[in-house]
Amino acid sequence: MVSDLSDVSVGDELPPLSVRVTRADLVRYAGASGDFNPIHWSDRVAGSVGLPGVIAHGMLTMALAGRVVTEWVGDPGAVVSYGVRFTRPVVVPDDDEGALVELSGSVSEVTTGADGCRVARVAVTARFDGRTVLSRGVAEVRLPQK
After folding, report:
1. Helices within the chain (DSSP H only)
2. In terms of pTM, does the model score above 0.85?
């Protein structure tokens, strides 16, 4: 864990984050995003399309993974780019515990731009049930000057 972001270097690990996603979270996200696809709330519909159950919205999973970066950097405005590929769903059971999503990140590159600003490239990982649910997760973060 790095406490002074001006000293960030390749290999630094971001503090991990674990988040529980419940069906109530899916309802709130659906309302905020406007994505009311029934695979995110109906076990019957999710099963009818071959899913193992109700799944979290992919963009919700991506946003949660982004939190590991924004909590580390302390300023969401310092994130200059962020992208992932969706590899498998987060299945959210109909109970009070929900699904545990484990998030982590590590600095894979630090560069200095023409403007003298340092940028850290962070590899972001999200796991559910012991398996990766996002691949190629990469965030680029503008670092404070040394």
Report:
1. 23-33, 43-48, 58-73
2. yes
